[in-house]
């Protein structure tokens, strides 16, 4: 049975998301209006339209202001009621074919299903399609359900694994191995197979997958989630016999993936699975037991309950060979499977999470041994949670080097470089009209922390902005439209001394 480390209660004095939430006497009414109006979808697209290279190829930046310090992106139709906007849209519909397949600008995700024109993200895009043309493929991908993905575990069970592959082959019209890794299976384009539709479309395939999971032969894991462990293994940091720390381990897919590598020989490796939330940690323990992985392997997992930003140094004095640092994030890259994120989206969520993410990464860097590596990852495409954190952590510390994303990893798999420049946005939650109005307020962009503070943005911190000191193009971005995946970000950092 896997071991339970001693829990140490660590409670932060502040909630990193508290400033991101609408508050005040009109909180409930404002939040309800914000959610139902679709404001979050519009602000989300407004933000990424101002971030060249973050989710689509760079183009000419929009002209949104002339003062050089702050620019605002406001919704068209200010002052018009939603009913009036609907009437105008009915009389003069936007003449843009949002449902077409994109074939340029890297936006070539397969057209799995007919685009749902009722999707609120598509509706938000249509309202300003002429200005947001670059985002078309991004929007198309995000408006479709996330394809079902499974990973065949790297376990010593050749006969049983061959039998499983044969059973999966019986459903080859629905699911099959991807071209860049035969151990990864993804639903076929056009079949509409996703996690929620599996039982309805093919009860037989669901039975095979559930059985394979219980037998420890496969993992139901999103493709993007596999990348940190694959990269750490490829650069030689994660290998048989390694001592691994998964700092923010719940729900545990990376923990189990790393365990397969660590225990791939007779060398005695181990994985520390940590999570600050006791209930999530207990769910992780149960998931490890349910995984079907042999007890001989799961015995090498130790569970700990610490604040990741204050994880204690090993009593032995021996630091970790590699650390998986998949930090808490806004999750905007998961919106294809989580419909609760965009309705309340504002940049305040990412801005508020940034200091915590930076603290966790800095602690990870202190805990890895010389020659070892850390993977920093989020399921967000917001540079404030991605390159901004990496830049702030490495800018003035030459003990570490940011490694190039290994291009040989998964041949044929499309990845994008990190970005070196981005814009920092704030949202004035009092700027919208919380009534029957389609004025969603404005995003304000500042070119420095000083300017933001001068304009009353108390949620600003200096590390949000680019430092220009770190080769951030070595990071990896995963665009949803490239391979019909979720959005993801990974940076691999090696300790030199």
From TrEMBL:
Domain (SAM-dependent MTase RsmB/NOP-type) ranges: 138-496
InterPro entries: MeTrfase_RsmB-F_NOP2_cat (IPR049560), MeTrfase_RsmB-F_NOP2_dom (IPR001678), RCMT (IPR023267), SAM-dependent_MTases_sf (IPR029063)
Region named Disordered: 1-23, 74-114
Residue sites binding S-adenosyl-L-methionine per the record: 275, 307, 326
Key words of the record: Methyltransferase, RNA-binding, S-adenosyl-L-methionine, Transferase
SUPFAM superfamilies: S-adenosyl-L-methionine-dependent methyltransferases (SSF53335)
Family affiliation: Belongs to the class I-like SAM-binding methyltransferase superfamily. RsmB/NOP family.
Stored PANTHER family: NCL1 YEAST -RELATED NOL1/NOP2/FMU SUN DOMAIN-CONTAINING, RNA CYTOSINE-C(5)-METHYLTRANSFERASE NSUN2-RELATED
Protein name: SAM-dependent MTase RsmB/NOP-type domain-containing protein
Organism: Thalassiosira oceanica
């Amino acid at each position: 049975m896997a071991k339970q480390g001693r829990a140490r209660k660590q409670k932060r004095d502040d909630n990193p998301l508290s400033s991101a939430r609408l508050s005040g006497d009109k909180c409930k009414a404002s939040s309800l209006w914000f959610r139902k109006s679709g404001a979050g979808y519009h602000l989300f697209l407004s933000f990424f339209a101002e971030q060249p290279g973050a989710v689509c190829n760079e183009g000419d930046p929009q002209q949104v202001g002339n003062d050089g310090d702050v620019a605002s992106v406001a919704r068209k139709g200010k002052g018009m009621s939603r009913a009036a906007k609907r009437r105008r849209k009915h009389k003069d519909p936007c003449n843009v074919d949002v449902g077409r397949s994109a074939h340029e600008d890297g936006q070539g995700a397969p057209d799995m299903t007919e685009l749902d024109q009722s999707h609120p993200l598509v509706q938000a895009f249509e309202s300003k399609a002429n200005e947001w043309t670059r985002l078309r493929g991004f929007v198309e991908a995000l408006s479709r359900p996330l394809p079902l993905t499974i990973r065949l575990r790297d376990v010593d069970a050749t006969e049983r694994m061959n039998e499983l592959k044969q059973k999966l082959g019986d459903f080859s019209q629905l699911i099959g191995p991807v071209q860049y890794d035969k151990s990864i299976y993804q639903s076929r384009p056009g079949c509409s197979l996703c996690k929620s539709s599996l039982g309805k479309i093919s009860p037989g395939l669901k039975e095979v997958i559930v059985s394979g999971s219980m037998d420890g032969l496969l993992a139901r894991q999103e493709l993007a989630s596999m990348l940190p462990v694959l990269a750490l293994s490829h650069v030689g940091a994660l290998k048989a016999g390694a001592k691994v720390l998964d700092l923010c381990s719940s729900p545990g897919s990376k923990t189990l993936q790393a365990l397969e590598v660590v225990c791939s020989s007779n060398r005695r490796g181990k994985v520390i699975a940590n999570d600050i939330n006791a209930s999530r940690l207990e769910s992780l323990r149960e998931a490890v037991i349910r995984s079907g992985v042999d007890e001989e392997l799961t015995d090498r997992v130790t569970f700990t309950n610490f604040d990741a930003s204050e994880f204690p140094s090993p009593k032995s004095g021996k630091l970790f060979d590699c650390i998986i640092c998949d930090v808490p994030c806004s999750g905007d890259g998961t919106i294809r499977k989580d419909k609760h994120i965009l309705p309340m989206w504002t940049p305040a969520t990412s801005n508020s999470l940034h200091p915590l993410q930076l603290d966790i990464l800095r602690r990870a860097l202190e805990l890895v041994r010389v020659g070892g590596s850390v993977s920093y990852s989020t399921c967000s495409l917001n540079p404030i949670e991605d390159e901004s954190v990496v830049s702030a952590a490495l800018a003035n510390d030459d003990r570490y080097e940011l490694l190039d994303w290994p291009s040989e990893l998964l041949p044929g798999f499309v990845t994008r470089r990190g970005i070196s420049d981005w814009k920092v946005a704030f949202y004035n939650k009092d700027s919208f009209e919380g009534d029957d109005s389609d004025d969603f307020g404005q995003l304000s962009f500042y070119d420095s922390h000083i300017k933001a503070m001068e304009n009353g943005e108390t949620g600003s911190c200096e590390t949000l902005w680019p430092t220009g000191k770190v080769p951030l193009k070595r990071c990896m971005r995963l665009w949803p439209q490239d391979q019909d995946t979720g959005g993801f970000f990974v940076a691999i950092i090696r300790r030199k001394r």
